[in-house]
Amino acid sequence: MVANIQEKSLYLPKLAKMTKKERFTDKEMFFEFRFDDGSNLNHRPGQFVELSIYGIGEAPISISSSPTQQGYFELCVRSVGRVTSYLHNNLNVGDYVGIRGPFGNGFPFEKFKGHDMLFICGGLGVAPLRSLINYTLDKTKRGDFGKVYILYGCKNNQEWLYQKEVEGWKNRADVETYLTVDKCTDSNWKGNVGVITTLIPKVNFDVNKTIAVICGPPIMYKFVVLELKNRNFKEENIYMSLERRMKCGVGKCGHCQINSVYVCQSGPVFDLPTVRKLQEAI
Amino acid sequence: MEEYIISLEDLKKLADNLIKEGTDLFLPSPDNSRFVRLKKADELKLAPEARPSDISAKQAAFPKCDPVLFYKRDKSTVELKDAEPSANQVLFGLKPCDAAAFGIMNKVFNWDYKDNFFNKRLENTLVIGLACTYSDDYCFCTSVGLSPVSETGSDIFLVRLSDAQFAARAVTDKGIQFVKKYSQLFAKGDSSKSKPALESIKGPARKFDSKKVKDWLDKNFETDFFNPVGDTCLGCGQCAFVCPTCHCFDIVDEDYSYSEGRRMKNWDACQFSLFTLHASGHNPRDNQAKRYRQRVNHKFKYYIDRFKEILCTGCGRCSRGCPVTIDIGSIVTKIGNLT
Ligand SMILES: Cc1cc2nc3c(=O)[nH]c(=O)nc-3n(C[C@H](O)[C@H](O)[C@H](O)COP(=O)(O)OP(=O)(O)OC[C@H]3O[C@@H](n4cnc5c(N)ncnc54)[C@H](O)[C@@H]3O)c2cc1C
Ligand code: SF4
Ligand code: SF4
Ligand code: FES
């Protein structure tokens, strides 16, 4: 899977041009990028890129678009530090960034075929999961999967990402979408209030044929897993994307290591039985 | 194994030839703090009785700061240039605990993607090892599969016969080709010369069973064993920076000016608290005991699990240099005795 790794150097990015920039919230923005030669990233849902801004640095960012979207790719970035704030504040449509990758294993969607899909997204975790959600919902792939449940929670009503698209998911007859906010900050909100685990009892999934895919802040995993176990979910049907500090993305620099596993290469997606064997993982 | 005899005078001639050809020659500095470039051939000295240099020779293949690309920025466009390949270099008088380290690091730099910055340098490097007659309380090469006379990682291996004379063994193809190229300086010898010299080398007193260490680590991740060392360790990272096998790095941009600069691979260390800090503020190794546990596990368990090698050559540098006298040798010896 050495798609966009330049022959001579692992660390030499390929330039990509920003073609869309849109504000989602105070902290998060949406970006579309294209390579000048029109080539695709050739990624799998769940993979990430190393995004560079020269003179500022590099940061790992999940690919938020589905590979079925051709000719461009999309990222959703929270401004937290040097690279991400520069991207937000100083770069505009027409500017170039460096891209290395795609890296990581991505979701084993081949194994998911024929199953019902339960997506559990917390906050920014929707960014990588959107890639798989939109892949699943793509008209060329929809037939490969059964029912689709999307559970998406945010801290408050100001923090929704991909709001228009989420409306689209809600309006689809072949998707059940459940939304929640930890704290209600909009008097017009008629949906659920409470952490994301409070949505799980509301969903009537069949544990024998459903795959759960989780992505969110580290604290979320333990509680979501407990709630799924209460519903007799099989551990091998639970997948999660782990967060680690990463630098090289290619299994060299050591930052992302958990035991003898390099998360940037063997992850970031793992099934629960594998995560259970990794110490310090969640 | 081809064995030769070479006098110190001829080694100096060899060095002189190499310098004139434009090859970079490195050897331990006179104060033994680090590896330095040899500028004048008659300053060549080989000291098998000296302690391992304070800083290892790993910079030859994995420099402290290594440019991986140069960039030029012009408003919205960027021009990228790959870093230049390195020059030929010869490392003189490496101890077995330094020479073996390159092969160990080679595993991580090539297990999946290939790191050509490391590979090119190693390809362009000839290692002249030297049988070591030093040992102190910190050394433990014989407990990690090496010894003061092991040739692992050396292309040519020297054994001091007298102050003026050395036995030279051509260990690898690269070493054999090298001896051929300078054959007028090497006289044919045989192992009868080096054997007594090698047999007189005793090696370090410290001994532990690395298999027992791994057995214990396999079973004891959650443990309070590392709490005392966690309380003492300053997290300064000295141990990783002097180590011949530690290979973690950061990627950092250095602007020369607003319009141009370079991107660097810089050494990093798992003993730093920021090493694993997520942007979210979450830190999976949030105290020094966990970070020291990582250091010991990476060296004596994880690296073996993944690459079948101990990530340590027993040189003792990390312990000799530790500001708060943490001694990895005695820590793993203790672990070995727990099973
Ligand atoms: C596989 C993977 C996928 C990811 N996907 C996404 C994604 O899709 N979207 C996304 O937004 N993020 C994603 N992240 C997280 C993202 O990589 C980090 O947010 C990013 O690396 C931060 O880089 P930075 O240079 O902006 O921050 P840095 O400057 O490196 O800062 C890192 C942390 O230090 C803090 N900090 C920065 N400067 C200072 C200072 N001067 N003093 C004190 N603290 C400071 C920041 O607040 C931040 O918490 C992903 C991470 C991984 C590993
Ligand atoms: S050198 Fe000593 S104090 Fe410094 S990080 Fe290593 S063990 Fe800790
Ligand atoms: S861990 Fe210490 S003893 Fe082992 S190779 Fe590194 S510096 Fe030498
Ligand atoms: S990010 Fe460098 S090893 Fe994984």
Count up the helices of chain A: 7
Largest sheet features of chain B: 8 strands, mixed
Low-confidence stretches of chain B: none
Average pLDDT figure of chain B:
94
* Portion of residues within helices of chain A: 10-25%
Strand content of chain A: 25-35%
CATH class annotation of the largest domain in chain A: Alpha Beta
Proportion of helical residues of chain B: 25-40%
- Low-pLDDT ranges of chain A: none
Number of helices of chain B: 11
Per DSSP E runs of 2 or more residues, the count of β-strands of chain B stands at 12
**Largest beta-sheet characterization of chain A:** 7 strands, mixed
Shape of chain B: globular
Could you list some keywords that capture this structure?
heterodimer; A: 282 residues; alpha/beta; Elongation Factor Tu (Ef-tu), domain 3; Rossmann fold; 2 domains; seven-stranded mixed beta sheet; six-stranded antiparallel beta sheet; 7 helices; 20% helix; B: 339 residues; alpha+beta; eight-stranded mixed beta sheet; four-stranded antiparallel beta sheet; binds flavin-adenine dinucleotide; binds iron/sulfur cluster; binds FE2/S2 (inorganic) cluster
Topology:
The complex is a heterodimer of chains A (282) and B (339).
Chain A: E1 14-23, E2 28-35, E3 48-53, E4 57-62, E5 73-78, H1 82-90, E6 96-103, H2 109-112, E7 116-122, H3 126-137, E8 148-154, H4 163-171, E9 175-181, E10 192-193, E11 210-215, H5 218-230, E12 238-241, E13 257-258, E14 261-262, H6 263-266, E15 269-271, H7 272-277
Parallel strand pairs in A: 7-8, 7-11, 8-9, 9-10, 11-12
Antiparallel strand pairs in A: 1-2, 1-6, 2-5, 3-4, 3-6, 12-15, 13-14
Chain B: E1 2-7, H1 8-21, E2 24-28, E3 35-37, E4 65-74, E5 77-82, E6 89-94, H2 96-110, H3 116-123, E7 125-130, E8 156-162, E9 165-170, H4 173-181, E10 187-188, H5 191-199, H6 210-219, H7 227-232, H8 238-242, E11 249-255, E12 260-267, H9 288-307, H10 317-321, H11 328-338
Parallel strand pairs in B: 2-6, 6-7, 7-8
Antiparallel strand pairs in B: 1-9, 1-10, 2-3, 4-5, 4-12, 8-9, 11-12
The complex binds flavin-adenine dinucleotide (FAD), iron/sulfur cluster (2 copies) and FE2/S2 (inorganic) cluster.
Residues 242-245, 299, 312-318, 328 of chain B line the site of one iron/sulfur cluster (SF4).
